[in-house]
Design a protein that fits this description.
With about 170 residues, this protein is an alpha+beta fold. The chain has helices at about 10-25, 35-45, 95-110, 125-130, 150-155, and strands at about 1-5, 50-55, 60-70, 75-85, 115. The longest helix has 16 residues, at about 95-110.
Length: about 170
């Protein structure tokens, strides 16, 4: 078993894992990620998305997809973990912890102030796992999201006029 940065050859497996995650999170109809989209996000000249994969038996069986955020209060970057997924048959083997440890190591090496993510309220196995690592819930915070028509409507009121009508599907 090993964890390493994602490579172009991993893109099909990572897309498959993201779709598996969507099914696990009871939202398969909301996941539209393609290999082309993921490849462009990860490997363009100025990537905004980064990733790691977990391998077992020479197969990609888990992934962590993340991007940088920034705390204006502390004045330093952090990592936001967008997706963490390990196939069910490989859970409990240490791969999820190894993926998170790889991101924590990046935070420490680069002087980033935090590693954060969201978890669904009903996902008790994940919540227990995260708590076992010392992660704490941000109970006083509520996530808000603008998508679809509401995003288009607000964007149309901005100083630049009407935004593009080709909005990416939200997750």
């Amino acid at each position: 078993m090993s964890v390493r940065p994602v490579e172009p050859r991993d893109v099909p497996a990572v897309v498959e894992l993201v779709h598996e995650l969507a099914r696990y999170e009871r939202e398969p109809q909301s996941c539209h990620l393609t290999e082309e989209q993921l490849s462009a996000a990860l490997f363009n000249p100025a990537p905004a998305l980064f990733g790691h994969v977990a391998e077992a038996g020479g197969q990609v069986v888990g992934c962590a997809l993340w991007f940088l955020n920034f705390s204006t209060w502390t004045g330093v970057h952090g990592i936001y973990l967008e997706d963490l997924f390990v196939r069910p048959e490989h859970r409990g083997s240490g791969l999820g912890k190894a993926l998170l440890a790889a991101l924590a190591e990046i935070c420490v090496e680069r002087g980033y102030g935090r590693l954060e993510w969201s978890v669904l309220d009903w996902n008790e196995p994940a919540i227990g796992f995260y708590r076992s690592l010392g992660a704490v819930p941000m109970d006083e915070w509520t996530t808000f999201r603008l998508t679809g028509d509401a995003l288009q409507a607000l964007g149309a009121t901005g100083p630049g006029g009407r935004p593009s009508t080709t909005a990416a599907p939200a997750r």
